Every structure is written in C-alpha cells, then in structure tokens.
Amino acid sequence: PVIVDDGSFDGEARNNLLKTFPNFGLWEKGECDLVFSQMFPAKKYPNLYNWRDRQILFRKLTDVYGRSKEWRLLLDSDILFFSRPKELEDLISETPGIFSQKDCWESYGYPRPFMESLAGAKLPEAINIGILNFSGKIIDWEKVEHWVGELERCYGRAYNITQGTFAMILAGKEVKKMDREKYKVYPRNPKKDEPLPVCGHYVADSKPWYFGQGWKKALELAGV
Description:
This protein has nine helices and nine strands. It is α/β, with parallel strands linked by helices. It has a four-stranded mixed beta sheet, covered by helices on one side. Strands 4-9-8 form a three-stranded mixed beta sheet, covered by helices on one side. Strands 1-2 form a two-stranded parallel sheet. Strand 1, helix 1 and strand 2 form a beta-alpha-beta unit. The chain starts with a strand and ends with a helix.
C-alpha cells in the first residue's frame, strides 16, 4: 500500500502503520507538492493549482494519477472492510480496466448536460471514486484544465468537483461498477445482528459510526 499524505501524517502514524505494513510507501505532502510543480507548470495549469490548493480531495486526481501512468487502485481512508472483498480481488486480477464503486445517488457537483457538453460524450452514471481502479495515461490534462476552469466560471465552486472531473474523464468509456449493496456508499448505522456489507464507505453523516464503532467492528471481524 501507498499512503498519500494530506499534510496530517506524523511520526506516530508512520510507526503504527509500519507494524502492520512493513513495506508501505508514503508520498509525503512536500514530495507531492514538488512533483506536482515539476509536472504541471503553474502558468500553463492555473486552474489545477487553484483547485488543488483549495480542496484536498482534488489531489486524488493530481497527486495520485498525475504523477503516474500505472494502473492504480485508489481506496479512500474512510472505507472499512468487514469481510473478504472477493469481487474486488477478482476485478484486480483481470486484465487492467476501469472500475469504481456505485454511488447511492449521483453526485458530480454540476449539471450533467453542461458537463457532457464539455466532455463531448455521455458521463457514466453514479460513479463513486472511494474505490477506483484507473490509469493516469487516460487523462488529457489540458482538457481537464479547461473543464475545471469552465465549471467554476459558469457554476461556481462545487465540493464534488473531483468526482465530477473523474466522471468527465471517463465519459464514453467502459466503467465497471461494483455491487452497490456489498460495497456500500453512505451506510446507515447497522441494527443489532444486522448483516454488514463487505465494504462500507463512510461519507458525510455516516462518519460518526465509522469513527466511533466501525473500525472496532472491522478489527473484531478480522480477528485482531
């Protein structure tokens, strides 16, 4: 695993992870800043700079897939696995291809018709990039620079611009979506003895259970 630091990763966190993942990689924020500045000249990509600075989530696009053209499986940090993710394992073992979680509702931040007019193709429906298998070689960065500039100019700033931008990049492409119920986005708090999903992605108001009980339950089921 590779941890992408948002600036909050400290020595204690590093030492704790080393106990479980002795060979984990860490892309520290300073390193990410340097690589980004080398790959994307500020004069050529001012909109990418603005969005990367103002919204940490945008670095999922620039810092993970901007620095590498390899196929990478991106996992958000607010995800918990409660049983072995067989579907995920099978997808990874196949010939490289794009797959993502399926969202509980579509959340791209901007009007779909306008986004499709910019992208020039139909957007995939309701992708969620909490789990995303993707390659940076797919991205035309000059188009992305233009898109995010036009989205903001015409409709202002939107929290979900990162997910929306990925949807535009994937417009017209084949995207496999994982089972929505087994790989659940925004799970509600489980009732006693209620079966848990294979994977829960704890966005928005579902985070209290993730921080309070979810991680303990995941460790318990893992036998830790």
